[in-house]
User: What shape does this take?
Amino acid sequence: MHESAINVLKVLNFTKQFPSVAHDGSLLFDQLKHMWQLCVQKKDPLDIYLLHAHMCYHGLETNMLLGNSLVSMLAEAGSLNDAHCIFEKLPERYESTWNSLISCYVKYENPHTALTLYDKMQMDAFSHPSRDTYLAVIKVCTQLKEIQRGFQIHAKVAYEGLFERDAYIASSLLDMYAKCGNMVKAQCVFNVISTHNTVLWTALIGGYADHGEGEKALKCYSEMRTRGIHPNRVTYICTLKACTTVGDIINGQAIHAETERQGLLENDPILGNSILFMYMKCGILTNAQEVFDRLSTRNIVTWTSLILGFVERGHGEDAIDCFERMQAKGIPPNTLTFGCVLKACSNVGHMSKGEDVHSEIERQGILQKDVALGNTLIDMYAKFGQLTKAREVFSRMSASNVVTWTTLISAHTECGYPEEALTLFNIMQTEVISPNSITLISSLKACGRLQAVHEGILIHVEIERQGLLARHSLVANALVDMYVKCGILSLARQNFDQLSIHDVVSWNTIISGYSEHGYGTEALQCYEQMQVEGALADAITYASGFKACGLTRNTCKGYEIHSKSEGYHPLKDDDMAYSMLVDMYVKFGLLNRAKQAFSKLFTQNVYSWTSLITGYVEHGHGEEALKCFEQMQLRDLSPSPATFISVVKACGMVGSLLKGEEVYIEIEKRGLIEDDHTINNCLFFMYSKCGSLDSARQLFDSIPVHDVVSWSALIAMYTEHELGEDALDCFQKMQLLGITPNAVTLVSGLKACGCICAIDKGREMHAEIERQGLMEGCEVLGNALISMYAKCGLVAFAKQVFDELPDRDVVSWTILMAGYAQLGQSENVFHVFSEMKGWGIEPSPVSYVVVLNACNRGGLHNTSKTLYDAMSRDHGIVPTSVHYNCMLDVFSRMGQLDEIRTILKKNPFGPSLVASRSILGACKSGGSLDLADMVFTNISELDKKDSASYVLMSQIYASTEL
Assistant: This one.
C-alpha cells in the first residue's frame, strides 16, 4: 500500500477515537491528555503532529503540561523548528524541556543553536542542565573547538560534583581537551579520574597522536598495557598514528602482529589502512604491499595510502602503476589520489601520463571545485617547463589562493623568467592576496636574478610588515642573498648582522657574496667569525673560502681551509668545491697542488679544465697548457670562451702558429670573433708573438669596431718587433679617430719613441700623460717615460722625470743607471746604484748587469769582481747567462784564465759568441790551447761562419808552435 494512503488511514483511526470535541474545557483537556498518552506510547510522528494540530485548534498550545511535553516529543521526532516555536511561547518551561531540546539540537547536528539555548537556560532560575545536557554541550564544544566554553562547563560540573562521580562526563571532558589540542588539561583530567578504562586511555593516546606528540602517545600506550588494560580497535588506530608520526616501526609491527592474532584486520578497512599507512610512512614498502595484498576490502583510502607512500618514498613509477590498477578495479579516484599521481608524474618526468590525468580531472569537472588540485597541476606543468599550460590551468580555476600564486611565481623564477615572476607577484597583490614566506622567497630570488633592487626593497618592506625576519630564517637568508646578487653588500651585511640565528645557509650567502664580488678579505673575516660561533661549514662554505684565499693570495689560510675540508666527507663528491680548490692553487702558483686537486674531481668539467689551463698560461707553462687542452678535447668537452682565451695565449707563448690557427678556425666556427673582443685581442697577441705580423694586421683590420684595447695591442706588437715607425703611425691614426690613449697605449708608444729616438713624439706623449694625470700611481708609465728619454740620450730629462715619481721601484733606478751607462757616465751609474741601496731597495739581476757592464767599459775590472761576488753573497741573486758572459769578458780583459775556467764550469748556458771571442783573445795572450779548443768548439756550434774566431784560433796555434 502507498505510504500516503497509510497516513490517511492513520488519521481516520485517530479521529474515530474522538468523534466530537466537547465544549466542556475539562473534558477537552482529558481528551487531549489521553491523546498525549497514546503519542507517548506509540511515538508515531504523525500522531504527534495531529496532537499538535488539535492543541493549536483549541488554543491549548501554551498549556504548561501539554506544551512542554509536545516540545519534547516534536524535538525527539526531529521537528526542531516546530518544537522551538512552541518552546518560545510557553509561559513556563520545564527543566526536562530545556534539556530535551538542547540534546536534540546536538543530536540533529545544530550545535550553534544548542549552545545558544544552553546559554539561555543558564538565565532561567528554575531550570538546571541535566547530565545528558552537559554531555551534549561538551560534545558541541568538542565539535566547534570551543575550548573556552569547555573550561566553563568543566568548572560547573566540578562545582556540582559530577566530575568526580560521573565517568562519562569526565571522559567527555578529556576527549574535548584532547581534540581541541590542550593536552596539558587533558592529562590533568585523566590524572584526576580514579579508574581508567580503555575509552579514557584511547582518548588520551588519540589526543597526543593527533597533535604530533607521538612519543607521549606511545608512552601512554605502553603504560596502559602495563596496567593490564586491553586496547580496542580505536586504541590501535590512534597508536598506529603515533608510530607513523615518530617512525616507531618496532611498536608498529607489534600492533600489526597483535591485530593479526585477534583477527581484527579481516573486516576492518580503517585499521588495515592505518597499518598500511604506518608502513609506507616508515619506508617499509615491502610490508606495506603485503598488508595491502591481504586486505579483503580495499577502498579509495587504501589505494590512496599506497599511492601516497610510493610518491613520498620516490617510487613514482610504482605509484603510477598502482593508480592504473586501482582504475582497472573500477574504484574512482578522489582529489587526493589525483594529486598524488600528478606528483608522481612530476617526479619521474612522465608528462604524457600527467596530461592523461589532467584530462580525467577536466572530464569529471573537479578542477573548478578543488584549489589544491589545481595547484598541484600548475606545479606539475612548471616542473616540466610547460609554463603556458601551467597558466592555462590557472586561468581555468574558479578560485585561487596564495599557494596557487606562489606556485606560478616560483615556476617562472625557477624556469628563468624572473620578469614574469615579478609581474605575477604585483598582480597577486592587486588581488588583495597576502604573500606567504615562500612567495616572498621566490620573488626575492627573481629580484636577485634581475638585480631589481627597487622591487627587492619593496618586498623587504612587506617582510618587515609581516615580522618574518625574526622568525623565518629562509626568508631572512633569501633577503640577504637578494642584496648580494644586486651587489649591495652593505645592505646584505646589515641584514645578516640583524639575524637572530646564523645558520650555515646565511653564512654561505654572505661569504660567497663577498667572494663573488672580489672582497676576499671580508669573506675570510666572515669565515673566521663563522668558526668562532661554532657553525659547521659545508662544501659551499669551503668553495667560497677557497675562492677568497685565491683572491687575497693568502696561502697559509688556503692550506688551513683545505686541511679542514679534508675531514668533510661530502666534499669528495662536490665538484664545485674542488674546482675552487684547483683555482685557488692556480692563483697561488702551486700548479702541482692544483693538478692533484684536479685529479680528485669526480667530473672534470669545462670550468675545472679552464682553471688548470689558465694557471699554466699565467705562470709561463704554455706547453703544459696545450697538453691539457688536448686532453680536454679528447673527453669531448666543449671549450668556453675563457678556455679559448688561455689556449690562444699559450700558442703565442710557445710560438705555435699552426696550433694557434687551428684554434682560430674553431673560434670562427662558433662565431666568437664578433662577440668577444677579448678573444680577438688574444688572437692578435698570438700572431704577434709568433712573428706573423701580417696575419695580426689582417685580423685587426677585419674587426669592425676598434677600441683602445685593440689599438694598444697593435701598437705593442710593432714596438716589440722594433718597428717603431709603424707603431707611431698606428698611434697617430688612433688619435685621429678620436680614441684617447690609455696608460697601456702610452707605454708602448714611449717604447717605440725610444727605439727610433723620436723625441718630439715622446714629448707629446709626455704632455698627454700630464694632461690625463696618469703618472700618479702608475710606476710602469713613469719607468717607460724615463727609458724613452734615456734611450734618446736626454738623461737629464730622464733624471727629472725620475725625481718627480711619487714611488720608485728597482726598475726605475735600473733604467736611470742604464741611461747613464749608455752615455759612458760610469761614475753616475755607481752613484745611482749606491743611492738606490741607500734607500733600502734591493738590486735586481738587471741592475747588476748594468753596473757590471759599466765597470767593464770603464776598465774597473777589480770592482766588477767585487760586485759579482756581492751579488750572490749579499743579495742571493743566482747569476744568469748575462752575468756569466759579462764576467767572462772582464776576466778575459784581465787575462785571468783560471777565473775563466771556474766561470765556465759554473755556467750551465755556455759562453755567448762575444764572450767566446774575448776568451780566445785571452788564450792568445796566455797561450792556453786547451781552453781555446774548448771555446772554439762552442763558437762553431753558435756560428760556423765566424771568420774572426778562425783568425784568432790560427794565431793561437801559431803562437803555441813557436
In short: Residues 374 and 922 are 100 Å apart (CA to CA).
